[in-house]
Amino acid sequence: NKRRGTSLAAAGASLNVSFFAMLLEADSKSMRSMSGSRRNSGSSLVSSSSASSNLSHLEEDTWILWGRIVNEWEEWRRKKDKLLKELIRKGIPHHFRAIVWQLLGNATDMPVKNQYSELLKMSSPCEKLIRRDIARTYPEHEFFKGQDSLGQEVLFNVMKAYSLVDREVGYCQGSAFIVGLLLMQMPEEEAFCVFVRLMQEYRLRELFKPSMAELGLCIYQFEYLLQEQLPELNVHFRSQSFHTSMYASSWFLTLFLTFLPLPVATRIFDIFMYEGLEIIFRVGLAILQYNQTDLIQLDMEGMSQHFQKVIPHQFDSCPDKLILRAYQVKYNPKRMKKLEKEYTTIKNKEMEEQIEIKRLRTENRLLKQRIETLEKCHPILYTEQFVSNLQTQLEQSRLREAELLGALKEMQDKVLDLEKRSSCLPDENNLATLQEEVKQMKLRELETSQLHLSESPKKNAMNELQDKLMTVRLREAQAQAELREVKLKALQLESQNQIHSKLIGRNDQERSALQDRLQMVANQNKALQAQLNEMKRKQAESDCKSKEEVMAVRLREADSMAAMAELRQKIAELEIQKEEGLIQGQLNHSDSRQYINQLRDQIAELKNEVRQPSPHSHKRALSHIQVSHLSEMLAFMRVANLPWSGHPNKFTSRSDRAMLRQITRNLSYISDSTGLGDHVKCQLS
């Protein structure tokens, strides 16, 4: 039945669901008939096989239930989703995992399955990387042992096919463990389809991208949950510089397949196929909560050793305990969505800063190249003397600017005064008309002076006043002309002031640009130095991690070698015990046969003595002989481990059982004929 179930699990992915359920029902009927035949096999075996029969009934009910679930899958997903979730959390039976995983991932009928054979004929740029990592995938599992084993070959095929389907991801170390688990349950075509669905629908593709942005998000969310639910442990981790990525990255990338034993990790993978990455967060927090008291007392090295050696084997015998603890952890999907938004905003800012840094680096590189070219063409430039000359020129220009501003202010004051004065004077047009009127008046005065030579002195005084008025008007006209000239000069000074101010502004801009460039170069040098220090620190951490991994691998190899030596020693001891048991059994068989023949001869002699005609004279001697022979037979029965009734079934051969029946009949005859039956039975008891 186990072999039949295994073959059924391997072929179930390619069959229709209804046909699969029909096979399950036939298998369950055969199990019922076999269990019925076992119940009717005999009363002597009922008590010893009661526990196994109960277990077979439980397995039979599980098979029937999961066969019904597979046959009515769509109805169970629509109407009995909660019950299905509970059953999956309790564990999918081994023989049903192939078809149930395909149904959970909706990978039964995928177009990419038809392309699988064509993909294997193509060449992938990731083949060398895949070949290098295949030997490290489940090295202790029988299916993947050996360089040319079937497991390694089909694992290479699936990883190569996916690297051709998704060239952006290609191949990522760690995904081979997930594919290896799928290949333990189903053929390679079905495993390829399920893996494609996992990458597309279960956030694994974002985890395995070269940027690994999804892994950073998972670490960010896990750190928040750790800080919220286990604050003391979180403070201890930070004090010891024990970062979350040092122990939790493999949890998310391999889904605990490299951290926990395979049966426990498979149970977690069952739930992952239904609920997604939520179970990874829950199990991780449950493990930390279970080990909190031990981890707080350890330093960084002790914690790393505890994670490698102690924690993986805590739930070997009871994976249900880990699952129960995992679902006692508080998990809020809405809060996780908010954390995802926060992380995306932080990452966007970091991306903008990185883009700005890249832009500044390129600009800095171009400026350096330009400075180098300028230094080659003009070696005098960019020296200390050149900078000092620029500073002196800048100071002189500032002094000239101050002088020009003072002169400009004085001229503006003069212009205001002149404008006030000119506001009281007539306009230029009125002045021209007045000059014409004065000329006409002078002409009329000449005419009248010729006609009237003898005028009164009053008229002479009027003429003088008119002459004075004309002179004043002429002076005003000259003042206005001078005012126009002053205005022109003021405009020229303003234009010159603007030109000088522009020159000063340009000099200021050039000086500030040079200072900004110098400051920027200094800041970039500091940033580059800080990045170099950070890279050195990361390199040191990676070296330490690699050394720790190498030490851990060596320790595991030493443990495996010691375990192999112990197993070989046990095998040798068992072989020796087996040979000793065979030899002892042969000796016991030969000795018992010889002794039975001797007893047969002695019983024949006793029969002859009993048949003699004078039994009264020999009764006492005969009784002593019988007692001695019966004592010898008693010793034989004790050696043979037989009660007085003498069950013949205890002997292995048919001839021994027949001889024992004959000895029993002879004993009854001798005890009844001599009247010593009670004495013999007392001795035998």
From TrEMBL:
**SUPFAM superfamilies referenced in this protein's UniProt entry, alphabetically:** Ypt/Rab-GAP domain of gyp1p (SSF47923)
Q: Which species is this UniProt entry from?
A: Oreochromis niloticus (Nile tilapia)
Would the keyword Lipid biosynthesis turn up in this protein's UniProt record?
Answer: no
One molecular function GO term is: small GTPase binding
Which keywords are on file for this protein? Coiled coil, Membrane, Phosphoprotein, Transmembrane, Transmembrane helix
Which PANTHER family is this protein grouped with? ECOTROPIC VIRAL INTEGRATION SITE 5 LIKE, RAB GTPASE-ACTIVATING PROTEIN 1-LIKE
Q: What SMART domains does its record include?
A: TBC
Q: What is this protein called?
A: Ecotropic viral integration site 5 like
Where the record annotates domain Rab-GAP TBC, the positions are 91-276
Mark the transmembrane ranges. 246-264
Kindly list any coiled-coil regions of this protein. 336-421, 462-609
Which InterPro entries does the entry link to? Rab-GAP-TBC_dom (IPR000195), Rab-GAP_TBC_sf (IPR035969), Rab_GAP_TBC_domain (IPR050302)
